[in-house]
Amino acid sequence: MTSSIKTAQAMPAADIKIRSAAFEDVPFIVMLDERATGHSKCCYWRELFAHFAQTPGEGRAFLVAEQQGRLVGFIAGEIRAFEFGAERCGWVFALNVDQDIRVNNVGTRLFEALCERFSSAGVEKVRTMVDRDNDLVLAFFRSLGMMTGPLIQLEKELD
């Protein structure tokens, strides 16, 4: 964790503004993710942002939450169609909120903003993948009305 992430103060949800991410936000996104996961993935976040920035408004969104001019969270998602036989739906790829202000509904506001964009594009369903052992994230998404879907992830270790 770097010292440039400052502890956020509990603020009313009205003080949170959601907007599209800008290139200048990527260092914050990297730091917030590293703080949550313990892994620095600078290249990953730069590449994901570049992918989303190439064709904005075409079924993908990378949003950030600001509180009094300071970034406190982000979400990234995209509309995908017919992969694995599934109907066209929105996918949440990443969602992270500064752990010091999680009680202020920032994650909920980010999720709702992304869902509004998906809905405006004619999507009727949203999906994500969650580590089955991450009770906090599972509880969060379930509180938003999400439940187990029809797909099962399979994996195999490669030699």
The CATH architecture can be named as 3-Layer(aba) Sandwich
Spell out the helices and strands N to C: EHHEEEHEH
**Main β-sheet description:** 5 strands, mixed
Number of helices: 4
The CATH class designation is Alpha Beta
Query: How much of the polypeptide forms β-strand, as a percent range?
Result: 15-25%
Helix content: 25-40%
Look up the CATH topology: Aminopeptidase
Please name the fourth-level CATH homologous superfamily.
Gcn5-related N-acetyltransferase (GNAT)
How many domains, in number, for the residues? Answer: 1
Q: What can you see in these coordinates?
A:
The protein is of the alpha+beta class. The protein has one domain: Aminopeptidase. The protein has four helices and five strands, in the order βααβββαβα. It has helices at 26-37, 42-54, 106-120, 135-143; strands at 16-20, 60-67, 70-80, 89-97, 126-128. Strands 1-2-3-4-5 form a five-stranded mixed sheet, with helices on both faces. Helix 3 (106-120) links the parallel strand 4 (89-97) and strand 5 (126-128). Helix 1 packs across helix 2. The radius of gyration is 16 Å and the shape is globular. The termini are far apart. Pfam families: Acetyltransf_1 (PF00583). Keywords: Transferase. It comes from Rhodoblastus sphagnicola. This is GNAT family N-acetyltransferase. One of its GO terms (molecular function) is acyltransferase activity, transferring groups other than amino-acyl groups.
